[in-house]
Amino acid sequence: MKRNLPSLLALAAGLACAPLALAHGGHGPGPAGAAAATPAATVPASAVNIDISRTCRGGGTRALTGSYDPATGALAASVVLTACVEGGATHDGSVVTSGTLTQSGTDVYALDLTSTYATTVTNGTDSVTRNCTWTKTGSYDLAAQTFTGSVTKTNCSLDLTETQRGDIVLHLLRDATQLDH
């Protein structure tokens, strides 16, 4: 069974920090969710250290560090965002992920990952600070880009500074009617 290290790292980073995945040459999926091809590299039989740093499209950096053991699927990784500008917004903070990620088919991966978010996104005078722990258990089909499983959120908080425009009641209810991924 062929395993691709960039695909595994992209998967882990994408599941941990979907908007700012280190996948696809350092840039996450585009606005429509389209993904570019990832170059293939054979995963070694023993544990590997992860140390990837990229410049964000609008400046700043994102770095992925940690380790992955393909024999057991053990993954321990940290994504650090430092003044990372994407889509006009500046991202700072970290996402720390641990758990298992194993290939269970040609493009299918079984996962049991826990990610702790401590991030701030600033856009002009608006900002959102998120602190949360997500546990994702299930499978991911890399070719179809489909996750099937469960996501549990615990100890979550959002601190907002947001410019209010238009009808305040409709604006406040907007979040209650949107599906949170």
Structure description:
The chain is mainly beta and 181 residues long. It has one domain (5-177). Helices cover 14% and strands 51% of the residues. The protein has three helices and seven strands, in the order ααβββββββα. The protein has helices at 5-16, 23-26, 168-177, and strands at residues 48-55, 61-69, 74-86, 89-103, 108-123, 126-141, 146-161. Strands 1-2-3-4-5-6-7 form a seven-stranded antiparallel sheet. The longest helix has 12 residues, at 5-16. Residues 1-7 and 15-42 have low confidence and may be disordered.
Task: Give the SSE map.
Layout: H1 5-16, H2 23-26, E1 48-55, E2 61-69, E3 74-86, E4 89-103, E5 108-123, E6 126-141, E7 146-161, H3 168-177
Antiparallel strand pairs: 1-2, 2-3, 3-4, 4-5, 5-6, 6-7
What can be said about this structure in brief?
The protein has three helices and seven strands, in the order ααβββββββα. The chain has 181 residues and is mainly beta. Strands 1-2-3-4-5-6-7 form a seven-stranded antiparallel sheet.
Descriptive key words:
181 residues; mainly beta; 7-stranded antiparallel β-sheet; 3 helices; 7 strands
